């Protein structure tokens, strides 16, 4: 074995050892004592309204639209792991009182409930989606160069969940559920079926950033106009409860070929 080979082996061993040490240092231990103190129902000290219930390693919210989430306590911080990780620094903690800071910088003082009836605020185990799932059908007749075209659009609700993080009234990060759609588009030229496809939001992966696509729903496809290029539709992709959206123009030409571009 040459000196050069021995030198490389020594460097590898040192690097591996340093990497292992750094990984061990970076993994902070969970504060199980603080987690145990959090068990129970916690109320906002200002108005006495329930904020959350801690049971085991799960945090529950009193409304029916927010998903329960896993949590842990690390280095005087409550970490709630939902669609994103929310961090709540603990400013003070006692058996019946806790003060935390929400992501907006506001200080929340919570007191532990002693009323057994408060458990009724958390009695709904079924999470309710915010958007209503509705079947929508549309027919459009188009005449071009003495040819008659019939466009059929159907918005089909699905059980595909889209989870989006929002802030509740206490400034806490909660995950709300929305349901995505599959939208069917068929174009006929007389009795001949010219084009047909079931659109999902993944059909626009080349035009829409992945981060946006993960949070958005395909809400609708609308007929816009027809011209010499073909029949033009707009696919609407939006992140629920925000003004953020992408509009994709879908063009079906008179030979049945489809193309897409961002509007």
Structure description:
This protein has 263 residues and is mainly beta. Helix content is 14%, strand content 51%. The protein contains three helices and 16 strands. A hairpin with a 2-residue loop joins strand 13 and strand 14. It starts with a helix and ends with a strand.
- Whole-number radius of gyration? 27 Å
Strand arrangement in the largest pleated sheet: 1-2-3-4-5-6-7-8
Question: What best-fitting shape do the alpha-carbon axes yield?
Answer: elongated
Mean pLDDT: 87
Helical residues, percent? 10-25%
How many strands, what sense, and barrel or not for the largest sheet? 8 strands, antiparallel, barrel
Tell me the total number of β-strands: 16
Order of SSEs: HHEEEEEEEEEEEEHEEEE
For the termini, the CA-CA separation is: 64 Å
Q: Work out the helix count.
A: 3
Strand content: over 45%
**Stretches with pLDDT under 50, minimum 5 residues:** 5-15, 18-26
Q: Structural class, judged by helices and strands? A: mainly beta
């Amino acid at each position: 074995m040459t000196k050069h080979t021995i030198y490389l082996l020594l460097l590898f061993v040192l690097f591996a050892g340093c990497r292992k040490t750094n990984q061990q240092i970076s993994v902070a231990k969970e504060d199980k004592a603080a987690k145990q103190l959090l068990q129970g129902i916690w109320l906002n000290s200002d108005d006495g309204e329930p904020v959350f219930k801690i049971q085991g390693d799960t945090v529950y919210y009193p409304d029916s639209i927010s998903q329960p989430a896993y949590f842990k306590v690390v280095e005087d911080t409550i970490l709630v792991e939902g669609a994103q990780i929310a961090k709540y620094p603990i400013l003070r903690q006692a058996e019946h009182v806790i003060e935390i800071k929400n992501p907006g910088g506001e200080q929340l003082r919570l007191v532990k409930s002693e009323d057994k009836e408060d458990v009724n605020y958390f009695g709904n185990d079924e999470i309710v989606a915010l958007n209503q799932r509705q079947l929508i059908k549309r027919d459009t007749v188009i005449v071009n160069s003495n040819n008659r075209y019939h466009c059929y659009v159907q918005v089909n609700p699905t059980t595909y969940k889209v989870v989006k993080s929002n802030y509740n009234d206490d400034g806490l990060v909660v995950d709300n559920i929305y349901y995505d759609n599959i939208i069917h588009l068929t174009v006929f030229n007389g009795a001949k079926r010219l084009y047909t496809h079931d659109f999902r939001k993944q059909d626009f992966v080349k035009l829409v950033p992945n981060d946006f696509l993960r949070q958005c729903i395909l809400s609708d496809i609308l007929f816009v106009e027809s011209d010499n290029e073909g029949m033009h539709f707009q696919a609407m992709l939006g992140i629920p409860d925000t003004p953020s959206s992408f509009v994709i123009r879908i063009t079906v030409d008179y030979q049945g070929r489809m193309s897409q571009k961002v509007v």
